[in-house]
Design a protein that fits this description.
Largest sheet: 3 strands, antiparallel
Number of strands: 3
Protein backbone atom coordinates (compact mmCIF):
# COMPACT_ATOMS: atom_id res chain seq x y z
CA UNK A 1 0.00 0.00 0.00
CA UNK A 2 1.49 3.34 -1.03
CA UNK A 3 1.40 6.53 1.06
CA UNK A 4 -1.63 7.94 -0.78
CA UNK A 5 -3.67 4.78 -0.23
CA UNK A 6 -2.59 4.58 3.42
CA UNK A 7 -3.47 8.22 4.16
CA UNK A 8 -6.81 7.89 2.34
CA UNK A 9 -7.60 4.74 4.35
CA UNK A 10 -6.79 6.59 7.59
CA UNK A 11 -9.24 9.36 6.70
CA UNK A 12 -11.92 6.80 5.84
CA UNK A 13 -11.40 5.11 9.24
CA UNK A 14 -11.64 8.47 11.04
CA UNK A 15 -14.82 9.29 9.15
CA UNK A 16 -16.32 5.91 10.12
CA UNK A 17 -15.46 6.50 13.80
CA UNK A 18 -17.53 9.70 13.60
CA UNK A 19 -20.66 8.16 12.07
CA UNK A 20 -19.88 8.29 8.37
CA UNK A 21 -21.51 7.35 5.97
CA UNK A 22 -24.85 7.69 7.76
CA UNK A 23 -24.08 11.32 8.58
CA UNK A 24 -21.80 14.09 7.37
CA UNK A 25 -18.49 14.44 9.20
CA UNK A 26 -16.33 17.59 9.43
CA UNK A 27 -12.58 17.43 10.02
CA UNK A 28 -10.12 20.33 10.52
CA UNK A 29 -8.93 21.61 7.13
CA UNK A 30 -5.51 22.96 8.12
CA UNK A 31 -4.61 19.85 10.09
CA UNK A 32 -5.47 17.59 7.14
CA UNK A 33 -3.35 19.68 4.76
CA UNK A 34 -0.43 19.66 7.23
CA UNK A 35 -0.69 15.93 7.81
CA UNK A 36 -0.74 15.20 4.07
CA UNK A 37 2.21 17.54 3.55
CA UNK A 38 4.22 15.79 6.26
CA UNK A 39 3.73 12.55 4.34
CA UNK A 40 4.80 14.21 1.08
CA UNK A 41 1.25 14.13 -0.30
CA UNK A 42 -1.07 16.66 -1.86
CA UNK A 43 -4.27 16.80 0.15
CA UNK A 44 -6.12 17.77 -3.03
CA UNK A 45 -5.03 14.41 -4.52
CA UNK A 46 -6.35 12.69 -1.39
CA UNK A 47 -9.71 14.46 -1.89
CA UNK A 48 -9.71 13.32 -5.53
CA UNK A 49 -9.09 9.73 -4.40
CA UNK A 50 -11.92 9.97 -1.87
CA UNK A 51 -14.24 11.38 -4.55
CA UNK A 52 -13.40 8.39 -6.75
CA UNK A 53 -14.56 6.21 -3.83
CA UNK A 54 -17.89 8.10 -3.62
CA UNK A 55 -16.96 10.39 -0.72
CA UNK A 56 -17.81 14.00 -1.52
CA UNK A 57 -16.55 17.02 0.37
CA UNK A 58 -17.14 20.70 0.90
CA UNK A 59 -14.43 22.99 2.20
CA UNK A 60 -15.21 25.75 4.66
CA UNK A 61 -12.55 28.15 5.91
CA UNK A 62 -11.77 25.87 8.86
CA UNK A 63 -13.18 22.44 8.02
CA UNK A 64 -13.70 19.86 5.32
CA UNK A 65 -17.21 18.44 5.51
CA UNK A 66 -17.30 14.91 4.09
CA UNK A 67 -20.52 13.47 2.75
CA UNK A 68 -21.95 11.08 0.21
CA UNK A 69 -24.06 11.86 -2.85
CA UNK A 70 -26.98 10.18 -1.06
CA UNK A 71 -26.66 12.43 2.01
CA UNK A 72 -26.28 15.50 -0.19
CA UNK A 73 -29.41 14.55 -2.14
CA UNK A 74 -31.38 13.85 1.04
CA UNK A 75 -30.65 17.32 2.41
CA UNK A 76 -30.94 19.27 -0.85
CA UNK A 77 -33.84 17.60 -2.63
CA UNK A 78 -37.19 17.06 -1.00
CA UNK A 79 -39.47 14.31 -2.19
CA UNK A 80 -42.67 15.29 -3.98
CA UNK A 81 -44.56 14.89 -0.71
CA UNK A 82 -42.06 17.00 1.24
CA UNK A 83 -42.08 19.76 -1.35
CA UNK A 84 -45.86 19.97 -1.26
CA UNK A 85 -45.99 19.23 -4.99
CA UNK A 86 -49.37 17.69 -5.58
CA UNK A 87 -49.38 18.90 -9.15
CA UNK A 88 -49.45 22.62 -8.40
CA UNK A 89 -45.68 22.99 -8.66
CA UNK A 90 -45.57 25.31 -5.65
CA UNK A 91 -44.24 24.03 -2.33
CA UNK A 92 -46.43 24.71 0.65
CA UNK A 93 -44.77 26.52 3.56
CA UNK A 94 -45.77 23.73 5.94
CA UNK A 95 -44.03 21.13 3.73
CA UNK A 96 -40.81 23.16 3.53
CA UNK A 97 -40.83 23.85 7.28
CA UNK A 98 -42.39 20.83 9.01
CA UNK A 99 -43.49 21.01 12.64
CA UNK A 100 -43.46 24.80 12.76
CA UNK A 101 -47.23 25.24 12.68
CA UNK A 102 -48.25 28.89 12.19
CA UNK A 103 -44.61 29.96 12.02
CA UNK A 104 -44.34 28.03 8.74
CA UNK A 105 -46.70 30.51 7.11
CA UNK A 106 -44.42 33.38 8.12
CA UNK A 107 -41.38 31.59 6.73
CA UNK A 108 -43.16 30.37 3.62
CA UNK A 109 -41.54 33.09 1.50
CA UNK A 110 -38.18 31.40 2.06
CA UNK A 111 -39.29 28.26 0.27
CA UNK A 112 -39.91 30.22 -2.93
CA UNK A 113 -36.47 31.85 -3.07
CA UNK A 114 -34.40 30.46 -5.93
CA UNK A 115 -31.29 30.23 -3.76
CA UNK A 116 -33.13 27.94 -1.36
CA UNK A 117 -34.86 25.76 -3.95
CA UNK A 118 -34.98 22.19 -2.75
CA UNK A 119 -34.28 23.05 0.90
CA UNK A 120 -35.69 20.39 3.19
CA UNK A 121 -35.46 21.71 6.73
CA UNK A 122 -36.69 18.39 8.15
CA UNK A 123 -33.56 16.68 6.81
CA UNK A 124 -31.41 18.96 8.96
CA UNK A 125 -32.55 17.23 12.15
CA UNK A 126 -29.82 14.57 12.01
CA UNK A 127 -26.97 17.01 11.53
CA UNK A 128 -24.51 18.18 14.16
CA UNK A 129 -24.46 21.85 15.10
CA UNK A 130 -21.33 22.26 12.98
CA UNK A 131 -23.04 20.69 9.97
CA UNK A 132 -26.13 22.86 10.47
CA UNK A 133 -24.00 26.00 10.55
CA UNK A 134 -22.23 24.91 7.35
CA UNK A 135 -25.60 24.21 5.70
CA UNK A 136 -26.95 27.61 6.80
CA UNK A 137 -23.84 29.36 5.53
CA UNK A 138 -24.08 27.56 2.21
CA UNK A 139 -27.78 28.42 1.90
CA UNK A 140 -27.08 32.10 2.66
CA UNK A 141 -24.37 32.18 -0.01
CA UNK A 142 -26.92 30.94 -2.56
CA UNK A 143 -29.11 34.01 -2.02
CA UNK A 144 -28.73 37.20 -3.98
CA UNK A 145 -28.39 40.44 -1.92
CA UNK A 146 -32.10 41.29 -2.22
CA UNK A 147 -33.15 37.84 -1.04
CA UNK A 148 -30.73 38.00 1.87
CA UNK A 149 -32.13 41.39 2.86
CA UNK A 150 -35.67 39.94 2.66
CA UNK A 151 -34.70 37.07 4.98
CA UNK A 152 -33.12 39.50 7.45
CA UNK A 153 -36.23 41.70 7.32
CA UNK A 154 -38.52 38.67 7.77
CA UNK A 155 -36.64 37.45 10.84
CA UNK A 156 -36.28 40.98 12.22
CA UNK A 157 -40.03 41.59 12.04
CA UNK A 158 -41.08 38.38 13.84
CA UNK A 159 -43.27 38.69 16.88
CA UNK A 160 -42.42 37.14 20.25
CA UNK A 161 -44.58 34.05 19.58
CA UNK A 162 -42.89 33.41 16.24
CA UNK A 163 -39.42 33.85 17.76
CA UNK A 164 -40.34 31.43 20.57
CA UNK A 165 -41.58 28.87 17.99
CA UNK A 166 -38.41 29.27 15.95
CA UNK A 167 -36.22 28.83 19.04
CA UNK A 168 -38.20 25.71 20.03
CA UNK A 169 -37.63 24.29 16.54
CA UNK A 170 -33.91 25.10 16.78
CA UNK A 171 -33.78 23.16 20.06
CA UNK A 172 -35.54 20.26 18.36
CA UNK A 173 -32.78 20.30 15.74
CA UNK A 174 -30.19 20.18 18.53
CA UNK A 175 -29.10 23.82 18.42
CA UNK A 176 -30.20 24.84 21.86
Amino acid sequence: MDALESFTATIVRNLAKNGFPSRKVALPLERLYESADQKGLSFNRVLERLAAEGITHEKTPERVVFSTPELDARVATPTRAESGDAGSGAPSPNAAFPDLGPLAEGLGGLAGMSGLAGLNVGALAGMSQQELMAAASQAAQQLDPEQLAAVQNMVGSMGPEQIAALMAYAKKLGLG
